[in-house]
Predict the structure.
Amino acid sequence: EKELALQLELTKIQVEACKRTREELDQEQARLDGEKALHVKELRRIQHEQASRYLNQDEPVLNGRYLLMKLLGKGGFSEVYKAYDLDQHCYVACKIHQLDAHWDERKQSDYAKHAVREYNIQKSLTH
């Protein structure tokens, strides 16, 4: 009976140790999954950056003023870059809009108006 009680106690201790190990492994898995997601996101960003028609120019200066440094994001018809403003000597975000050549004049005009409206809103921001 003493031997059985001792075996039961040892089994309980081993089960608790296994539970702790499982919790630690679950936490490590969650941490690694988070790191993996960040790496996948960065890999996609780099692929978009390499495919960009703006950043891969011989002279990555936009309008003679903005030194394009890093693609921050890409949407359907625009790309956003971290850039350095050579006139103001500060970092800025530059959003470059691309018109689809297949759009008719009206759609291109509407999109241009939308881009100008967005520009005016963002120009008024201070931070």
Summary: The chain has a mean pLDDT of 88. Residues 2-51 form the longest helix (50 residues). Helices lie at 2-51, 105-123.
